[in-house]
């Protein structure tokens, strides 16, 4: 991390104070993302940040890039249009677990499958924060939420495993407790030429924390620390010891052709066809 | 000399009109009876240096179109009833954020899956009010293959001029109709492009408008680094939940920029209206039947004429009041149960009688029904 990093350079300071509660993890993710952008020396004029709807999705309004705050669940679909129409832009989607995996689940699968060169950061606080603490597809089974007063009976899913299976070419998981690691995971995601997912386990002390007696933000971060195993360490541990732990780091990479490049080559084919037809008409 | 006439389908003409207008991005999801628009553009857009993508659903298609438009390219999608329903939330986003795009709805019989290949005009009100919240809308409605071409160009022109989504309402009949057309006469049709900012990036306020005019629009990546949100916002583009004056200003301007330009947006044709006692007001496939009916009825001595609406929304109040003044009866044939007729009645109730001739049986409207009404034989005609 360069010592000279100045977060103010990338913030819309006149939009402060932000709407997030004290102790919320959203700001920590924003900071890590900005450091990654700085580390890559990206031109802010060429960066587009697209978010959905939720507490986490308000992130787009605070950063001085081209920013788009869309509809609930749809940021990837907006981002797909942007990236295809202007491939020279660096397109990043930052959004919540509910936005990405419930209402936006379909777009998520197909963005992974296409392997379009977009980086997606899912801020996973295990809950719908903005609407007041309802369960999301990533709320662990048995936990409480305002719409699961007797405990959540729906099993959560491993969104990183889903991304890999669907074809994402870079899949990583970080935690807000480790901001430097998170920054590096995001940075490498942006560097990957294809669809990159970085899931960040974050804390919502106000709803998820309170409803599940997890203490304050510090307690929740401590819990992260105690329950996290890096991918490297986990590979040397017996499966039983890893069960129930958060595995962090780069979880998978694979090589597949990138979607926009594929389309560009199809354009050439199509333009060749046009030439042939002209000859045929002569 | 080679003739410039061509046999063409309505959906194909729509795609060709889009290309003429300069479309560079299409996102869609297959649905009858609109699919030929996607198929034509899948073939022709990459040749024209543009992009075609088949998205995972209609919600995503609408979103991708808006995203693409933000990069400065003309964008469109095409669908039919079920898909039009799915697009509504993001159409509202485009209204709120003032992002130009064209949404084609080749109507089929609904509600629900309804009749995929059955003609209907049941989405007239959905085109107007399909997305939630107070807003204005522009919707155009062609009655022939040639008009499908021309009105697609105009849909792009209005969307760019007013920075708003424009709905193009075809119906199954027009979408699948094949006619011999000569599009050469449209070669010099004026193509309008969105207003762009002249300020330096530091001074640009993305939603600062002169009166009711749509504000100039920068593209992503040009250095302006603006914010776009579907939340209520002020001139800067940032949310202003507590500023009721700014909210009022925004919503009023979004409506006024269209409603107040009603005359600029109203496209229509007149047929045999001279000395008419009866006026038929029709649009889309039903207008075709009305042309035939008026001709027949004139031969029988009935003084009847046709006002053929090509613009449905914003509702052309001034024109409709003016053209119906002094008429004994206004007849409104529609393939729905009086959606547009009620709008007409609302506007002219004090000056003339409005009769609906409606039909929802999945068949096209037969001209004889209009003639039968004039002869006093009509069943199902209802005075509103
Ligand atoms: C179509 C639609 N449905 C529902 C909502 C209400 N809504 C707003 S935010 C949200 C959940 C957000 O949860 P998440 O994505 O996990 O983000 P968080 O607030 O936890 O950061 C919901 C359901 C909406 N805005 N739009
Ligand atoms: S409700 Fe939760 S997620 Fe939302 S800002 Fe507060 S702490 Fe963060």
Could you please describe the fold and organization of this structure?
The complex is a heterodimer of chains A (282) and B (384). Chain A has one domain (7-257): Rossmann fold (3-Layer(aba) Sandwich), CATH 3.40.50.970. The model of chain A is unreliable at 278-282 (pLDDT under 50). Chain A has an eight-stranded mixed beta sheet, with helices on both faces. Chain A is an alpha/beta fold and 282 residues long. Helices cover 40% and strands 16% of the residues of chain A. The longest helix of chain A has 23 residues, at 259-281. Chain A has helices at 26-39, 75-85, 97-103, 105-114, 159-166, 179-191, 205-211, 217-226, 231-235, 239-242, 259-281; strands spanning 47-51, 66-69, 90-96, 119-124, 170-175, 196-201, 228-230, 246-253. Chain A contains eleven helices and eight strands. Chain B folds into two domains: 6-186, 3-Layer(aba) Sandwich (Rossmann fold); 268-383, Rossmann fold. In chain B, strands 3-2-4-5-7-6-13 form a seven-stranded mixed beta sheet, sandwiched between helices. In chain B, strands 10-12-11-14-15-16 form a six-stranded mixed beta sheet, with helices on both faces. In chain B, helix 1 (10-21) packs parallel to helix 2 (35-47). The interface between A and B is large, with 41 and 44 residues. Strand 2 of chain A pairs parallel with strand 9 of chain B, so a sheet runs across the interface. The complex binds thiamine diphosphate and iron/sulfur cluster (SF4). Iron/sulfur cluster is lined by residues 20-21, 24, 26, 55, 125, 129-130, 204-207 of chain A.
Number of helices of chain B: 13
The computed structural class of chain B is alpha/beta
Quickly name the level 1 CATH class of chain A.
Answer: Alpha Beta
N/C terminus separation of chain B: 54 Å
Number of strands of chain A: 8
Estimate the mean pLDDT confidence of chain A: 95
Biggest β-sheet description of chain A: 8 strands, mixed
Which chain pair shows the most residues in contact?
A-B, 41 and 44 residues
And the CATH topology of the largest domain in chain B? Rossmann fold
Mean pLDDT of chain B: 97
What is the number of independent domains of chain A? 1
Helix content of chain A: 25-40%
Report the sheet-strand fraction of chain B. Answer: 15-25%
Q: If you compute it from the alpha carbons, what radius of gyration of chain A comes out, rounded to the nearest whole angstrom? A: 20 Å
Number of strands of chain B: 16
H-E order of chain A: HEEHEHHEHEHEHHEHHEH
Helix content of chain B: 25-40%
* Rg of chain B computed from alpha carbons, rounded to a whole number of angstroms: 21 Å
Shape of chain B: globular
């Amino acid at each position: 991390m360069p010592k000279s990093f100045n977060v103010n350079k990338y913030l819309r300071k006149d939009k402060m104070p932000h709407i997030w509660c004290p102790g919320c993890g959203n700001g920590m993710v924003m900071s890590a993302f900005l450091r990654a952008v700085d580390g890559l020396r990206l031109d802010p004029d060429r960066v587009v940040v697209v978010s959905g709807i939720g507490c986490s999705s308000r992130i787009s309004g605070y950063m001085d890039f081209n920013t788009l705050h869309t509809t609930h669940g749809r940021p990837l679909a907006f981002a797909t249009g942007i990236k295809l129409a202007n491939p020279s832009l660096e397109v990043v989607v930052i959004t919540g677990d509910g936005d990405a995996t419930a209402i936006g689940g379909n777009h998520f699968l197909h963005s992974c499958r296409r392997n379009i060169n977009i980086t997606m950061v899912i801020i996973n606080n295990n809950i719908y924060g903005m609407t007041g603490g309802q369960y999301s597809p990533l709320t662990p089974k048995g936990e409480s939420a305002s719409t699961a007063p007797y405990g959540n009976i729906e099993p959560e899913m491993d969104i990183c495993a889903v991304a890999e299976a669907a074809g994402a070419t870079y899949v990583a998981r970080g935690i807000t407790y480790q901001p430097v690691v998170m920054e590096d995971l995001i940075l490498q995601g942006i560097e990957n030429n294809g669809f990159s997912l970085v899931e960040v386990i974050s804390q919502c002390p106000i709803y998820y924390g309170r409803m599940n007696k997890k203490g304050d933000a510090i307690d929740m971060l401590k819990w992260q620390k105690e329950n996290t195993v890096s991918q490297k360490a986990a590979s040397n541990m017996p499966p039983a010891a890893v069960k129930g732990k958060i595995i962090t780091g780069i979880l998978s990479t694979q090589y597949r052709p990138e979607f926009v490049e594929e389309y560009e080559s199809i354009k050439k084919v199509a333009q060749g066809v046009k030439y042939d037809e002209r000859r045929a008409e002569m | 000399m080679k003739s410039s006439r061509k046999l063409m389908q309505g959906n194909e003409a729509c795609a060709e009109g889009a290309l003429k207008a300069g479309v560079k991005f299409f996102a869609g999801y297959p649905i009858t009876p609109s699919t030929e628009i996607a198929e034509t553009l899948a073939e022709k857009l990459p040749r024209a240096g543009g992009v075609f993508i088949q998205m995972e659903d209609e919600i995503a298609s609408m979103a991708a179109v808006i995203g693409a438009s933000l990069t400065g390219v003309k964008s469109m999608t095409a669908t039919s009833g079920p898909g039009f329903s799915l697009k509504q939330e993001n159409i509202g986003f485009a209204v709120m954020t003032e992002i130009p795009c064209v949404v084609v709805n080749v109507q089929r019989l609904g509600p629900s899956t309804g009749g995929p290949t059955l003609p209907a005009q049941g989405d007239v009100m959905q085109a107007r009010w399909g997305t939630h919240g107070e807003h204005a809308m522009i919707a155009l409605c062609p009655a022939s293959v040639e008009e499908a071409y021309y009105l697609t160009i105009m849909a792009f022109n209005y969307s760019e001029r007013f920075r708003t989504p424009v709905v193009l309402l075809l119906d199954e009949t027009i979408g699948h109709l094949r006619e011999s057309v000569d599009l050469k006469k449209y070669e010099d049709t004026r193509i309008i492009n969105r207003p762009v900012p002249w300020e330096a990036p530091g001074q640009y306020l993305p939603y600062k408008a002169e009166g009711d005019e749509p504000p100039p629009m920068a593209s992503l990546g040009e250095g302006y680094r603006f914010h776009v949100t579907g939340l209520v916002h002020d001139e800067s583009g940032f949310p202003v939940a507590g500023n009721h004056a700014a909210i009022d200003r925004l919503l009023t301007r979004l409506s006024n920029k269209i409603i107040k330009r009603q005359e600029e947006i109203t496209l229509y044709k007149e047929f045999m209206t001279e000395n008419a006692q009866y006026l038929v007001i029709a649009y889309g496939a039903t207008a075709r039947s009305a042309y035939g009916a008026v001709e027949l009825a004139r031969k029988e001595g009935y003084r009847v004429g046709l006002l053929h609406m090509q613009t449905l929304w914003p509702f052309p109040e001034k024109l409709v009041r003016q053209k119906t003044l002094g008429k004994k009866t206004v007849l409104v044939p529609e393939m729905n149960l009086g959606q547009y007729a009620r709008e007409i009645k609302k506007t002219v109730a004090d000056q003339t009688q409005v009769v609906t001739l409606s039909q929802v049986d999945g068949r096209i409207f037969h001209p004889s029904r209009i003639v039968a009404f004039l002869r006093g034989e009509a069943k199902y005609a209802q005075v509103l």
